[in-house]
Amino acid sequence: MSSTGHRHPHPIAASFRDLEPERFEDCYLAGSSIAIRRVRSQLQRIAPYFRIALITGEPGTGKQTLAHALHQSSPGNNGPFVPWHATELVDRLLPDTPTADILREAHCGTLFLDEIDRVPFSLQSRLVHLLHQPDVQRCDLRIIASSNRELRTLAATGQFRDELYRRIAAAEITLPPLRTRPEDIPAIATALLQHITDNPTLTPEALTHLQHHPWPHNIRELRETLQKATTQAGGAPIDLHHLPLPKPQQPENEHSLERLQDVVQRHVLDVLTRCSGNKLRASEVLGISRSTLYRMLDANTAAANPRYPG
Questions:
Q1: 263 in the same domain as 204
Q2: How far apart are CA 257 and CA 238, in angstroms?
Q3: Are 229 and 255 members of one domain?
Q4: Which CATH number is 225's domain given?
Q5: In terms of DSSP H, where are the helices of the chain?
Q6: Structural domain count of the chain
Q7: InterPro entries from the entry (predicted)?
């Protein structure tokens, strides 16, 4: 039985895209890029000890899923995991409205405050008060907040209450956008398809196209794309024409104008895709050592995302 806490139906519930975050934990945290390895390392390091934590990342990167993974790995994993969205909190943070019941629902478990950056500045002092309640101070529950935007910047520019930021950011994990780690897409797509269909198969052409799509809505968009493609494929392997994405267009002689580094990198990623993400097999096909392959992939990740240096 899921450890997710259950409340009476609330209007916001219909808008939650991940009502069962535990179902997709193996998907959102899959891959071997530097960025996602760092996230998994932080998860393992923080989970046994945290009382309040902050998860930041673009929409669709899996903040609620990571929050549930933190809960499951914490000493309070036998208690409930209770998600509250910012738009729900606004109703409870109005003056003269008791907030103790918010803590009571997550007693001995984890309270997840989703999109805390959307709480109006005028009500954030109430949230500071909530986080100083005796139940929190006695460590009867753990609190995880999430934000689509970087709260450090918002606090520095006066758009987010600095006292609240300092309270929730004692332990912070940032989830990387999917577009910065295309080498992880084969592992993520395979894991997602195992939840979606009995025939989790992608053709090499379809997988290559997935790796080159920019994914503005991140893994959530990838999941929805694969769900639609599975329906279109009707049990057959998912091919390029099944994907509800713009078809790849390459101008004539485009490759002749590319840098050698780009050509080599694209070939390495293509071989890795055809080897289903198996780095040992890919290095054998490429005729290079596995350590050299790792350096090439890490260099690509660092170039695509300067915030995560190699």
A1: no
A2: 32
A3: no
A4: 1.10.8.60
A5: 25-28, 34-46, 63-73, 86-92, 100-105, 124-131, 134-137, 151-156, 162-168, 185-196, 204-212, 218-233, 260-274, 279-286, 290-304
A6: 3
A7: AAA+_ATPase (IPR003593), AAA_lid_NorR (IPR058031), Homeodomain-like_sf (IPR009057), HTH_Fis (IPR002197), P-loop_NTPase (IPR027417), Sigma_54_int (IPR002078)
Q: In the beta sheet, which residues pair with residue 116?
A: none
3-state secondary structure 32-47: CCHHHHHHHHHHHHHC
Backbone φ and ψ for 143, nearest 5 degrees, come out as: -125, 130
Task: Report how far Cα 115 is from the mean position of its chain's Cα atoms.
Answer: 13
What span, in angstroms and rounded, lies between the C-alpha atoms of 89 and 83? 10
Same domain, 119 and 211: no
The strand order across the sheet containing 142-147 reads 81-85, 110-114, 142-147, 52-56, 172-174
Tens digit of pLDDT per residue, the chain (310 long)? 444 544 433 332 223 334 355 566 778 899 999 999 999 999 999 999 999 999 999 999 999 999 999 999 999 899 999 999 887 877 777 766 666 677 778 888 999 999 999 999 988 988 888 888 776 666 578 999 999 999 999 999 999 999 999 999 999 999 999 999 999 999 999 999 999 988 889 999 999 999 999 999 999 999 999 999 999 999 899 999 999 998 776 555 555 556 777 778 788 888 888 777 788 878 877 778 888 888 888 776 545 444 434 3
pTM of the model: 0.73
